[in-house]
Specification:
It is a single chain. This protein is an alpha/beta fold. It folds into 2 domains: 3-55 and 153-314, Rossmann fold (3-Layer(aba) Sandwich), CATH 3.40.50.1100; 57-147, 3-Layer(aba) Sandwich (Rossmann fold), CATH 3.40.50.1100. The chain is built from 13 helices and 10 strands. The chain has helices at 9-18, 32-38, 56-65, 69-74, 83-95, 109-117, 129-143, 154-170, 185-197, 213-220, 245-251, 260-274, 280-291, and strands at residues 28-29, 41-46, 76-79, 99-104, 121-125, 146-147, 176-180, 203-208, 254-258, 300-305. It has a 6-stranded mixed β-sheet with strand order 1-2-10-7-8-9, with helices on both faces. Strands 5-4-3-6 form a 4-stranded parallel β-sheet, with helices on both faces. Strand 4, helix 6 and strand 5 form a beta-alpha-beta unit. Its cofactor is pyridoxal 5'-phosphate.
């Protein structure tokens, strides 16, 4: 995709207005104790406190609210392991339209239950991207619903960009901003907001070592799909999108990969010191920051806690 096609500053400002009544302006937290332990002033953008418990509400609502009335009437469909599914389901409920959600059979039960609670129809598939896309195509063909891609969609990217825009407005002089990379919607949006609204604050990508396709793709200069992801961070197991990758390639400062053990330790610190519930994917940016914290001694950095949907009976610590 050409970089000329990406969302512009006005697209993100329009998205912010469009979704204003559908999302929360989430708070930014910090912990003096944690800052002392790490030697870094860390500011956390708490998207785990967003509607549906994740940043996905931003992109999903912007994409759905950008559809025509004729499209809305037939409903929306998507494939997702959980957070985007919930966001599409809730936006559809608020817009009073049908929603059809394709989910892998091993998606966390807490996320499946939430999707059903919002009134969407859940259709199960195998746990790989090909299976998701094949089932999704069948659903779209049968229902005529509009496909709201979880990340490879410019309206979704523009919606996700509002997260970093808010954080940059609510903090000052950040030396870096850490965001996760799964499909790349939040990362692409974060990079664009940094360019347009944040004086080009360096953005560092965070990825599980067991699903490191974005890191490998970035190094290779071309997309290398993730075929067999193996990580506790279920929300980041997907491959980086075609519309997202050129933005990442152009603007990302670095991509740091972390082990499941490092992710779990980051979760534990967040639970202990911030008293916040985060899912494994939500802790990946913090784990990445901890890994290179010596680069930021005494400086301010931002970390996006992208989600908090976890089964508390299955905490990894």
């Amino acid at each position: 995709m050409l970089l000329q096609e990406i969302p512009k500053k006005d697209d993100i400002l329009s998205a912010e207005k469009r979704i204003h009544n559908y999302v929360h302006r989430t708070p930014v937290f910090t912990s003096n104790q944690l800052n002392e332990i790490l030697g870094v002033h860390v500011y956390f953008k708490c998207e785990n406190l967003q509607k549906v418990g994740a940043f996905k509400m931003r992109g999903a609502s912007n994409a759905i609210l950008s559809l025509t009335k004729a499209q809305l009437k037939k409903g929306v469909a998507t494939h997702s392991s959980g957070n985007h599914a919930q966001a599409v389901a809730l936006t559809a409920k608020l817009a009073k339209i049908p929603a059809y959600i394709v989910m892998p059979h091993n998606a966390p039960e807490v996320k499946v239950e939430a999707v059903r609670r919002y009134g969407a129809e859940v259709i199960y598939c195998e746990s790989n991207l090909n299976a998701r896309e094949e089932m999704l195509n069948e659903v779209v063909e049968k229902t005529g619903a509009s496909f709201i891609h979880p990340y490879d969609n410019y309206d979704v990217i523009a919606g996700q960009a509002t997260c970093a825009k808010e954080m940059l407005e609510d903090t000052d002089h950040l030396k870096a901003l850490f965001a996760p990379i799964g499909g790349g919607g939040l990362m692409a949006g974060t990079l664009l907001s940094s360019q347009y609204f944040g004086n080009k604050t360096p953005v560092i990508g965070a990825e599980p070592a067991g699903a490191d396709d974005a890191y490998r793709s970035w190094k290779a200069g071309k997309i290398i799909p993730m075929e067999h992801p193996d990580t506790i961070a279920d929300g980041l197991r997907t491959s980086v999108g075609e519309r997202n990758f050129p933005i990442i390639q152009q603007y990302v400062k670095d991509i740091i990969t972390v082990s499941d053990e490092e992710i779990i330790e980051a979760m534990r610190l967040i639970f202990n010191y911030l008293k916040l519930v985060v899912e494994p994917s939500g802790a990946v940016p913090f784990a990445s920051m901890i890994k290179i914290k010596d680069q930021f001694k005494g400086k301010k950095v931002g970390v996006i806690l992208c989600g908090g949907n976890i089964d508390l009976k299955k905490l990894p610590f």
